[in-house]
Each structure stands twice: as structure tokens, then as C-alpha cells.
Amino acid sequence: MRIAITCCLGLYLSAAATGEDLFRASFDASGTEPPLVHAWGDKPTVTVNAVEPGVGLNGTAAAHLKATYPDPVQNKLSYWAYSLRDPVPLVPQLETISFQVKTNVPVSIKVGIAPFGFIYHGPGVGASEQWQQVTLPNAYESLKNWCTKGQADPDQAAVGSIIVAVADSAGVTADVIVDDIVFAGAQGARQAMDGAVLERRIKRVKVAAISLVWEEGQRTLANTLAALDEAGKLGADLACLPQECVEQPAEPIPGPSSTAIAQKAAEYKMYVVGNLLEKDGEKTYVTSFLCDREGKIAGVYRKSHRLPCEADIALGDDLPTFSTDFGCIGMKIGTDHFFPEIDRVLRSRGASLVVWSTKPFAFRDENYFAQALKGRAMQNGLHLIVAQYAGKQGYGGYADRFSWTASWPLGRAQVYAPDGHTLADSGHDGGVALAAIPRARLGGRSGDGGYATTGTFALITATEPLPAPPKRDGKRVIKAAAIECEGNFDRLIAKLDECGKQGCDIACLWEYVWYNTDEEVEKNKERNRGYLARLAEAAKRNNMYVVIAGELERGFNESILFDRQGTEIGRYTKILQTTSKDSKYYREGDRVGVFDLDFGRICTKICNDVNGPDIDRVAALHQVDLLLLHTQDGGPYSENIRTREMHRCIDCGYYLLRAGSQGTETDHRSYIMDPWGMVLAGSQLWVDNAPLIATLNLNNRPQYYEWPDAVRQAGDMPDPVKRGIPEEDSLKMYGRFNRPVAKGDLRATILQNRRPELYRPRGKK
Fold first, then answer.
1. What would the pLDDT profile of 41-69 be if each residue is shown by its tens digit?
2. Among 393, 439, 615, 673, which residue has the least CB neighbours within 10 Å?
3. Looking at domain 203-445, which of 1.20.1250.20, 3.30.450.40, 3.40.50.2000, 3.60.110.10 is its CATH number?
4. Chain centre distance of CA 309
5. Are 81 and 36 spatial neighbours (Cβ–Cβ below 8 Å)?
């Protein structure tokens, strides 16, 4: 709960006749959350961080921080942030930012500037038992110049937080009271503020994703420039071209084609992301380049990942992001798509928008790629711009609505929102998909983030390859069951026996129970041990693995595995615990729950673990066959849940057993899903469901496809016409005659071509 403030965004008029308060936080009501949040620097032991009555100016309430610093200290400084519920836009009428303080150590004012993450360093005061005012004078000019110095647009800047910087030293207890955080402005400031707020709320950034035609003779510079003319005349702020948008030999960048594309950017005062084969010395790269509104090439990204069929191209060694006047963007190219770590890294490096420039793959399945894209947009909070090719109208099935995707590509340009919804779509005919994105939803600045190199998920950045799962000569076609929320233990045992009658090899049970107090844990511990014993007996009786989760025995959430003989073979402790940290039983998992069974490898996770996508990536690195999700997950909403699970099945390559409960939405169910994101079995709505059972061939997995060498030698478009199929044999243009060749397991191929050194924060080896 946010503490009360007496004004926000200029809605409070001060008593002074000569000016106006744009914002005032006077801490005159208490809240449940600490008013100041440690944001950086030395970490003390905090004894007080609350709004206290009677300690402020004139005996009012104020924010009180009391903290003892360790010996030794490293930074001799710590930041304590007060975050504004609504950031205050910078307007020229903003004159001063200040707060009142009573302190026994020196403090200074610092200002957090959104959305860029800048911190402006203001003046301070020394220790005093009397109230002092810490003031940043000439606030607008100071903050404006700070943004300009950081190459950020001050017209898009806002004050997001006020930081009380506390000078500390070893063993000292800082005692700081803060009151009346005030933004003061000249007369008319409120009107300017209201205008700025409205302007920012309605401002849109127009993004044009371009789909060119993938047909011999169509990928010309003239057609590319014509598409940019269309985007420019539509008022695009950013136009995005597909991979190798001009069919030509590699050229330097800048070079003739990239220069012509950049000139279109200057003509329409828009950013353009182009993509060409780049020649640099003896090496050939596939390179995306960002042209700014003045027609300068502001940055390049060289394709950083490849699959075996792309051995003839060189790779870049960075995942850069680029600042623009509407926010930070990232870029990826073609088969980069198969490496979901890229999206996460670009997001951690400040990107709010990622442009994927691509061309047709040998394996052409629009649903397979679209579901992954929607999920990644949602998971990473990204706008995804897809610039890909359309096929020739009327050929390959377009005219009669059939999609012979092994012939001409089935592609389109699209713009996805961070909730996974489609904002714009060119359709299969190609053209421009134009989306108007609220400017306030973009932002960020280029940074150096990445995956953690230590801790629970350090495997994601480890360069040492994991050994492949053990080869199994035995059973790989199994029957798997997911049993939806069954609180009656007798009925649960009966459902397990039904699974046994149908020959199931493994049963995934839901997240059985959790408790609100330690007393409940202790009261039910012996009963639950009896339940576990009955589960073990059922596993042995039915010769199948049984896995259940919940706060069943030790007071924290864990999953427990029983083998076919009823022997407990392992436990997984939930990583993202929802058990109260106040509980004496609290424990947080520090490893992903991967286990080898006689038919394959599984991973188990529980409920809130779904908010840790790194768990799934580690599961993928271990090449698990089955992911078991035990949950009472009721949110955020069922479409989100299914999009999330579909894209993770696709990106991580596992079968999913989701044993959950039902909500109020009609598609909130339990289900079994395959690595293509297809539901193989699902529960019925609002009934006592029998176990969901599906036969799974664990060797039936997505494959990595290549065109045969003879086809690849025919050129960049290995399609029937290019191969000279005669008119009388035209039926062979269709999919069953024109298929690429499977070259092995797709996930294993992807894992062999990851580049984990690129996923680390920059500067860390």
C-alpha cells in the first residue's frame, strides 16, 4: 500500500501566491510498506523503515529510517528511494525539488529519471538535530542537461523517484527522518504539467513491419525502396525490412544498397532497420543496420547464431541494443529465432522493442513460429516486430486457401504487443503492417545486462556443454496421466488405480495443499505422511511413477517422486516459494528439479515457478522429455496461461503434464501438451474429471530440416519453379513431393549451437 500524498502531477496548489506545487508527499498517513526502499550501496541492518506519527514537521507523520551499517563498508553510501506512483514529466516551469530532513549523518538528494534509468546527483546537507531543507535548484535545466548528456530526449523524461543518499561508515547507526518531498514550479506550471501528461498519454509511435514477396526477381532494391515509400507515407517512425531484403552479392555497410535505404530514412524522417549480406574483408555476415531519422547508420547487428546449414556465413559476437528517440530497440535475424535467450538478453539490455528480420526456413510452419513469438513477447514484456516474406499470390495454395508450406513460404509481417496480442498484420499477400504503439509503453536505454553467471540458473551462461541424456534402448512410448485437483484422498487413490488399469507409466498430481500457519503444518503432518505412504503403495501396485507436490510433510512446498516400486527417489524444493518467509519451515529451492526415470528424463516444477522462465531453459539444457507442472494456478487469465505454456513447450522442446485446478474461465483447464504446443488431452469444464491420459512417443519430436544439397545449390529460393519442374508435372510443386530432409532432433541441434558467452552481462568473462 502506497502512503498517502497530498498532491500528484500538479493537482495541489501551494499556499505561495507566486508558484505552484507540482507534487507533495507529506507522509500524513501510514502504510504497510516501507516508505524508503534500498536501491544501491552498502546494505545495513534496518531497525526502522516506516511512516511514524509525531516525528515530522510540526508534529506530523514522517518517513523514519534507522539503519546500522556493517564493518567494513565498501561504498560509504547507500541509496534509499521514494518511488512516485505517477512519474512527473519534466516541464520548463519546474523550478525546485526538495525534501525536509533531520539526520545524524550527511545526506544528499538524487533524482531517478524515467524511463532512462538515469540518476541525477544533487546537493546535500550535514548532520543536524534541526530540520534542514535539501534542495535541487534549477531543477528543469539540471535534469534536462543530464538527459541530453546521456543522449536521451528530455521531452520524454519524467521524475520517477527521489533518492535520499545516506553517507555511512562502519558500525554507524544512521537515524534519518524525511518529510515534505516537494516539486515546486512557477505560476502556470500546473497547466503545463497537465498538458504534458495528456500529450504523453496520447502520443503514438508508428511502427511499420514490411513483408516483401519471396519470388525470383522480386527482391530488388527498387521494390525495397518502394516499400519504404509506403511506410514513409503512412507516417512510420520505424520501418523494418526482412532478412536480405535485396537479393545481391554481399557488400560493405555502408555500401550502395544500405546507403539508398538510409536515404529513404532521411527522406521520411523515420528510423529504418534494413538487412543485407555484408562483406567485410574475407568474411560474409548477415547484418541488420539501424538508420536514424537523418539517414545516418546509427548501429549494426551481425547475426550471432546459426544452424548447420548456415556454415558459410560468419557470426557477430555481440547482442547490442540501440537507443532511439522513442526508446531502446534490439535486433535479431533469421534462425536467431531458435535461441530464446536472445530475447531475454535484449530485454535485460534495455530493449522494449525487438525487430526480427527473417526469410523462409526449410521447415515452414507459421503456427509453430507464431505461438513462440506471442509467448516470448508476453514473457519478456516486449513489442516484437516481425518482418518476413510472403509468397507469390495464387501460387503454392494461396488462391484456394491451402497452405503448401513446403513450397512457397507462408509468411507475413506482424507486430506483437507485450501481452502477446497482434497489433498489426500484413496478411499473406505481403505489404506493410502498421501499428500505433503508445509512446509511454516504449522507452528504456541501451545497457549491458544479461543472465546471471552464478546461482541457481548459472548453467544458462556456462560454456561447458552438458552431456547428452543417457541412451535408452527400452521403452520410449509411454502412457502419461495428469490428475486434476482432487482433494478427496480416497478418490485420488481410485484415480491412480484407474491409471494403473490403463497401463500408465507416470501420473502427475496437482499441488495438493498449502498451509497458512505453522500450527496447521504440525497438526496435519502425521496425516499427510499417511497420505504419502498410500501414494507409495499405489505407485507400487500399479507399477508406475507417481509425483505429487505441496506442503505435505516438511512445511514448505516441494514435489515428491515415487518410482514403480513405491520407493521415494527424489524431492524438488520449489524455487519461487509462496510459503511465508515468517514460517520456521520456510525453505527456498536452489536447483531445478531434473530426474532420470527408466523411460526418459523429467523436470518438475510447482505453481509460482511458472514465473521463473529460467527454470524451463535449464530443463531444455538438460533435454528433458516431460515437464510436470503441479499447480493451483488461477491467473492471470487463461489465455495468458495457455500462451505461456505453448511457447515454452515449443522453445524448450518438452511434453507438458499440467495438473491444476479449474478457474472461472472456460479454457482454464488441465492438459497434456506436446513440443509443438498442441493439446493432446484436456479436462472438461466444471466436472469431476477422470485422469487425463495420453500415449506419448518420446522419440516423436520436432526435427531440424534442411533442403537437400542439390536443392540448395539451385540458389536462394529452392522452390519447384526454380528447380525446373515441367508444366505437366506441376503437381509436384505441392508439399508431399517437395519436402526438406530431417537432419536430427531440433532441440539437440539448437543446444549444440548456443553461444552462452553472449548471454552474460557485458564485461564479465
1. 999 999 999 999 999 998 999 999 999 99
2. 393
3. 3.60.110.10
4. 29
5. yes
